[in-house]
Design goal:
It contains three helices and nine strands, in the order E-H-E-H-E-E-E-E-H-E-E-E. It has helices at residues 15-20, 27-40, 90-93; strands at residues 4-6, 23-25, 46-53, 59-66, 74-78, 81-85, 96-102, 107-112, 125-126.
Length: 127
């Protein structure tokens, strides 16, 4: 699914292509996010995807609903699902694809990140 980028007044015009290539949200993930937002009963929330220090490999992903707009945020729209990536996380997430799997073995969001050099055995962090 392709994102439509939203620029703020202080965003450089040439940042659109950079923002668009930050992350991709699959149709399955978008549908799941919509269902979770409907369950919350709020339409003012966006899915924030962030990279934070931590985990056994050095960095870990955070996905959560957020109603804040921070300076430097990249806002992406995937068929009505707003996804926000902060400017510090964007370089780590360029080209990453967020999906949702629901199988007998596993249920949850997955991140396929071409920038990750490796991950720990538990799969919760990367470097």
């Amino acid at each position: 699914m392709t994102a439509d980028s939203t620029q703020t007044a202080d965003t450089a015009p040439d940042a659109t292509s950079e923002v668009s290539s930050t992350v991709n949200l699959t149709d399955t993930a978008s549908t799941k996010v919509k269902a979770l937002l409907d369950a919350e009963g709020r339409d003012d929330l966006a899915l924030r995807i962030a990279v934070q220090p931590g985990g056994c490999s050095g960095l870990r992903y955070q996905l959560f609903f957020d109603d804040r707009s921070l300076d430097g945020d990249n806002l992406l729209d995937f068929s009505g699902v707003n996804v926000v990536v902060d400017r510090m996380s964007a370089p780590y997430l360029g080209g990453a694809t967020i999906d949702f799997v629901d199988t007998i073995e596993k249920q949850g969001f997955t991140i396929d990140n071409p920038n990750a050099g490796g991950s720990c055995a538990c799969g919760e962090s990367f470097h």
